[in-house]
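Recap for those who missed Tuesday's class. We walked through two folding examples back to back. For each one, the amino acid string is listed first and its predicted structure tokens come directly after. Nothing is annotated here on purpose, so try labeling regions yourself before you check the end of the notes.
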Amino acid sequence: MADVRMFYALAEGGTLARATTAPKGPDHPYTCLDCGTRVKLRRGPKRAPHFSHYDVTTCTGEGVIHHAAKLELARALREREHPMMLHIPCSWPGCTEAVVFAFDGPAGPHTEVVTEYALRVGDVTYRLDVATLLHGAFQGGYEVYHHHRVPEDKRRSGLSNWVEVHAEPLLDNPYALYMVRDAPPINPVIEAFVHDLDLAAQVHPLDVYHYRAQGSGKWVHEEWHSGEVYVDTYDRYTCPAHEGVSDRLLGAAYAVHFPKVVEPARPSAFEATLERQRRTADFAAAFYQARQVPGHALLGLHVKACRCPGRECRAPGVFVMSTFAPEWRAFGPLARLSRDRQHLLNFCGACGAYADRKLLGFEDGVSLVGDLVAARLSELVGS
């Protein structure tokens, strides 16, 4: 069987080698990413750089791109030299554009990156091409698509915090994740509806949603302060060119089928941030009121509402992020001074364990000035 030319191979130490830049010579052995046997680097003036097997083999090299992309993605997740950006396919049928989404926040912090990770969910074990872990706990999974899609039962399962991305773009830029599209059949009624809004009576609003494409993946976001959990299946993303069209379709369909239903206006990013701060201040004030912490003890401090970093606790609480609090005694069991009496130590109000500020910094949460919490606390005490 004729040997195949491959542009990538596995170098010593498990790193990815590219035929265009890999060093040559007997001191630099390489193995095939697909079958694991030795390959040689061929690079000269008469042929394009490539790797080939030493001996005649049945290896087709079909999995080389897939394995190479996995290695590049794992390396990028370990090094984090640049922000991770997720390119979500536009949900409008036939559109080839993507919505670029900053992914570092949803992906969260991690301490370890593993390839070929086995994750058990209930009675089922799923294998992920690449996974990130935080102190041994699963954070997120990445499936790399080249020739074979993620099986249908796996895509529709209870597996969460995973995304399926294209392999070849990872080899050009592993920090740009191009999500694979899951597209439903074209709906001719809605095709006509696009050009004639008077046909809205024939289209139910739910059909507009079903008509939209979906990205392959599912991510769960938890708003801890309100106990709400959001599951993002990437089926509501439209590029700027189609966002207005989609909104008009939904508006026309809703006006016919649900005349009294008015879609709420989307708050601006500034208004949403203010609302989040207000809700967090309410939570922090109730938290301190229940523990009899006076409002004046919070003046001039910075606090953070987040989960306890203890792996066995994870209870929501409020922690002082300032190095020192003048009235630290007023916090009771929540705070005390370090041995050198120079730094404030935080303790969880649920489990009572010490919470290091460095670990608290990694937790998702909301930071507030203590004056804001103190003002809300005074309203609660006076009511």
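Example two. Treat it independently of the first, because the proteins are unrelated.
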Amino acid sequence: MNDPFPWAHATHPDWRMSTALCLAQIEQACRRGAGARATLGLLYLTDHYADAAAGILATLRERTGVTHWVGAIGVGIVAGAAEYIDEPAMALMLADFAPGDFQVFSGKSPPPARDARLPDGRRAAWTALLHADASTPDMAGIVRDMAGKLAGGRLFGGLSSSRHASTQIADEILAGGLSGVVLSENVAVAGRVSQGCQPIGPVHRITAAQGRLLSKLDDEPALDVLLHDIGAPDTLSAPGIVDTRPPRAMAGEPNNGPPAARGERAATVQMLQGTFVGIGKGEAFVRGDYLVRPLIGVDARRRALALAAELDAADHVAFCRRDRQAAQADLVRACTELRDAIERGHGGMQAVRGMVYISCLGRTGTLFGGPSAEMQLIRKQLGEVPLIGLFANGEICNDKLYWYTGVLAAFL
């Protein structure tokens, strides 16, 4: 059995000290026999180290002998059960993929062609770890296009949350666009996505929609279906648009009707403000990889809903809640499904050599209960596997760009 990938993480105001601490951890792992044949380094830095990123990369390359590196810079990173948010920190991992089984790519170096084959006949472009600049236009379209360039069609990764222009690492420090590493069919990767929420009702078929306006579900007015699913009274019968964004956006809404009616209406609006909408094709709800977008308004006269996403590519929706209980339960679900798949296909979690976790920066804080609670929950579910990653401004799994999710990927 192959050894786990050597990995390390550290925090210190001086990047040189953090780098030295990480290298000491890596060297200790190498003395135990791991990492001797490393060919690819994964590196995540908080943006406190953005100005020193080139120096960090050069030092790691020199001290480890590993030439190829990929990663990203963000406001926060993860490593094991630890979360480093808005503090100087780094995390790295060394993989020993065969040289022909991976290729670092960026705007300066294209990935292998979709139909490229290795000498053993297997596909050279099967899956990819992808990092991107969040300011790049039409990133959702770019992600779909990139997935189409892979014979396996599978991506995982995220958009940098860095406050600096240089946001990516692909054998050098880069700004803009996307980069990462393409992996061949010989590299086994298993993954799951956690939505951070749970459905509160059944999946409904879209029967009338245009753009971002959802008019009918299962041939019934969409607002009526929503109110039924969330158990809210219909206090929105008066004509008009109701804004369901956060309360600060509601300050200018007129209060019509007697005090009792205003109270009931306010209670319904508050329930709507905590509601999100899962959208996608029918089978996506079985796999749990549907998109979740906010509900931004309702049209009480037309009994329609306005979503923060185009509905042209979706044919089903499910209304969801996002709170601590739902987030914890869904992360446990994703971890359980991933662990079960690894045990069925690879004999157990001992087959995991390393993991990458990309979580949304918006999931930090109190959503999971406090500092590092998200990573501690993953550690409890999956054990002490080598794991590093990034808090992102958007998460990538397969051919979709997500918000507010966590993407787990295990190298086996």
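Answers for example two:
Confidence is low (pLDDT under 50) at residues 247-262.
The first strand starts at residue 7 and ends at 11.
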